[in-house]
Every structure is written in structure tokens, then in C-alpha cells.
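User: Here's a structure from my thesis project, written as C-alpha cells. My advisor, Dr. K., wants to see whether a designed sequence matches the one we expressed. Can you design one independently, without my sequence as a hint?
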């Protein structure tokens, strides 16, 4: 049987708009390598986000790796959150750094700044924090700690596209912010991602890294191939135009869920105005209750997702055991309900009536 409702559904622009942008691409036969669609997308992102440098990449995971590389982080400890998608952790390990977990705040689900300070050692070089579900981290506290201890700050802002504060995207925080443009995200290019920075020298390093470490065709530093193709950039240019509409529809569906699920706990958003309605997470009393609700939903072909489970400090490929009781507890009890630009009132009602019978 065909699944009825998934945790999300990708936005797709009208086909003709996509094909019309690709027309130029067929004319000039440039499919990748800094083509006009890619440079156009980067310029549009700079202007929409009020960013100085938007550097598109092939995905959000390699964007984090690029940030770590550009900041020269190696053989060091990176303090990070245990409550994220596993890609945040993968990037640290792939870059041969040691992840040190600082537990999260039980209300906001973002890394707890006080716990960061407790984890600092002489080997700490950076903080890699995540604006979980688009909930802005305590960026001021994190900046104070980073300054005091001479640490770099990277934000994995994969959930924060369309989050603005004081008129500019939250991608401006940290030395570098990264984003994912994966098909499941609020803004997407099917596969894709980007780094954002206000620092010219870092921007140059990030651009070099995504293209084999070349500088004017000569190898200068170690790099990889993390380029975004013209086809992906074209999809991004089409989708960007619809972002206002996408955010409005997600906000409306979120308000319906909120009204219909009064008994369930949700994350506390530190700044209501920065929300981009990227996910609809709910926190159950217990894992048993979560599993009971999930089984009932699945019975009606409704497929929520356990974002994020398990807590990253418990994955089997870490060298040493680290405890993060808050994250471990939340990870067992949190579930993301179906939310997309197409979510209808009837769908929200179908989901919430099943849940409300169980909680
Ligand atoms: C989606 C996601 C990523 C990975 O992005 P990809 O584009 O899929 O590689 C990284 N971090 C977080 C928090 C994410 O949600």
C-alpha cells in the first residue's frame, strides 16, 4: 500500500520554471564548475539572506567538513551537541577531530552554554552547535564563551533556512554557519548545502576546498569535490522564489497542530520571530507512549520520524563513553509529525485525533 503521510514532502516548483532555467544550460553546455546558475544562486542567497558570502556545496554534510577544514581544525577537540542528525558528528570524525559532547537544555533542545564551559580542555579548539528544529541557540552566551577561551564557532544551521533576526539570516552567527539544501529541508536543491561567512579569507578557503583545493587551477591546499551542479542550482533558484509562501503554509499548519495538541510538550522557542516551521516535534511522557502512538499512526499509514534518535553520544562508533542524560532522555521521547508545504487541515486533524486518543 502507498504510504499516505510521510514526515515531510519536498516542495516542487512548476516544471516549466525549472525547464526554462535549464534552457540556458543546454545552450552553453555548462553543467557545473561555477556556472552562471550557481553564481546566480549564490548572489540571490546573499541578497535574500543578507549574507556576505554564500558558498554552495554538494550537500550539508560536506559543508560542515569544509568549515572544519577552513578553520584549520585538526587533532583537537570540538565541543558539540549530542542532539542532532548524525551528519554533525560524522563531519567531526571524518575530519579527524574528537567530538566532546555538552548536554542540551531540556526546554530548547539546543546545546546548553553552561555545559560547554564544563567541557573545555587545553585541546578544545571549536564549538559546533546546531539550531535544533530552527530554534536559535543562545548565540550570545556561546560567543562570550568562545571569545573567553579562544574557540572558533561553527553553527550547523541545517534547520534554519528562512530564520531571520533583526532583518538578516541567522546564518551570520559564528565564524561559519552551514546549511543543508537536502530535499527534506525547508529550502532545497534536491541535494545541496552551503557555508556562510562574513570573513573574506575564510570564504576563499571554502571556495578552494569545494573545488579540489585549487587556486587558479593550481593545487594550493587539500580539497575535495563538493561543487554544486548547474541543475541543482537551477532548482534552488526556482524554489527560492516560493520561500515566503512555503513559510506561510508551514506556519499555518503548525498553528493547527498547536491548537489540536494542547496536552503534549513541545520545544520552547527562544525567539518566536526566528521560527521557520521546519519540523513539528512533540515530546511524549515516555518512550512507551511514543511507540504506542507511532504504531497507531502507522496503522493509518501515517509515518512520523524519530528525529533525533538515538542521542549521538550513544552511537557505537565512538572511542569513549560520554554521558548526556538530558539528550538521551529527550531522544527517546521525541517524535516529528508530518509537516510540509502541502499539509492540509484534514491531515493535521487525522494525525492529532489518533494522538489525542493515546495521551
Ligand atoms: C540534514 C542535516 C544535515 C546533513 O545535510 P545533508 O545535506 O543531508 O548532507 C546536517 N545536519 C543536520 C542538523 C541536518 O538536519
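Assistant: Designed independently from the structure alone:
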Amino acid at each position: 500500500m502507498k504510504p499516505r503521510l510521510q514526515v515531510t514532502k519536498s516542495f516542487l516548483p512548476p516544471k516549466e520554471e525549472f525547464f526554462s532555467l535549464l534552457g540556458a544550460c543546454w545552450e552553453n553546455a555548462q553543467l557545473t564548475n561555477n556556472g552562471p546558475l550557481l553564481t546566480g544562486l549564490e548572489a540571490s542567497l546573499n541578497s535574500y539572506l543578507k549574507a556576505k558570502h554564500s558558498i554552495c556545496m554538494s550537500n550539508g554534510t560536506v559543508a560542515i567538513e569544509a568549515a572544519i577544514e577552513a578553520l584549520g581544525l585538526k587533532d583537537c577537540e570540538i565541543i558539540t551537541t549530542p542532539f542532532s542528525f548524525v551528519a554533525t558528528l560524522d563531519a567531526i570524525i571524518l575530519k579527524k577531530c574528537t567530538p566532546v559532547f555538552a548536554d542540551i537544555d531540556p526546554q530548547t533542545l539546543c546545546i546548553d552554554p553552561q555545559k560547554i564551559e564544563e567541557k573545555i580542555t587545553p585541546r578544545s579548539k571549536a564549538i559546533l552547535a546546531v539550531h535544533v528544529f530552527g530554534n536559535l541557540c543562545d548565540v550570545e552566551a556561546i560567543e562570550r564563551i568562545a571569545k573567553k577561551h579562544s574557540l572558533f564557532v561553527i553553527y550547523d544551521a541545517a534547520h534554519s533556512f528562512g530564520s531571520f533576526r533583526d532583518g538578516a539570516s541567522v546564518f551570520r552567527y559564528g565564524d561559519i554557519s552551514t546549511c543543508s539544501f537536502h530535499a527534506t529541508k525547508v529550502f532545497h536543491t534536491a541535494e545541496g548545502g552551503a557555508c556562510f561567512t562574513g570573513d573574506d579569507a575564510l570564504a576563499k578557503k571554502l571556495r578552494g576546498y569545494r573545488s579540489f583545493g585549487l587556486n587558479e587551477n593550481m593545487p594550493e591546499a587539500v580539497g575535495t569535490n563538493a561543487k554544486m551542479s548547474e541543475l541543482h542550482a537551477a532548482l534552488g533558484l526556482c524554489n527560492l522564489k516560493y520561500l515566503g509562501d512555503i513559510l506561510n503554509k508551514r506556519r499555518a499548519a503548525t498553528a493547527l497542530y498547536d491548537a489540536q495538541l494542547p496536552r503534549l510538550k513541545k520545544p520552547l522557542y527562544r525567539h518566536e520571530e526566528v521560527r521557520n516551521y521546519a519540523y513539528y516535534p512533540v515530546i511524549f511522557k515516555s518512550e512507551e507512549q511514543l511507540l504506542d502512538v507511532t504504531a497507531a499512526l502507522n496503522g493509518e499509514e501515517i509515518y512520523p520520524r524519530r528525529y533525533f534518535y538515538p542521542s549521538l553520544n550513544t552511537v557505537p562508533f565512538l572511542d569513549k563513553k560520554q554521558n548526556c542524560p538530558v539528550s538521551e532522555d529527550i531522544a527517546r521521547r521525541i517524535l516529528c509529525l508530518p509537516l510540509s508545504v502541502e499539509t492540509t487541515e484534514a491531515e493535521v486533524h487525522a494525525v492529532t485525533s489518533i494522538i489525542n486518543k493515546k495521551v
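When you compare it with your expressed construct, this may help: The chain has a mean pLDDT of 97.
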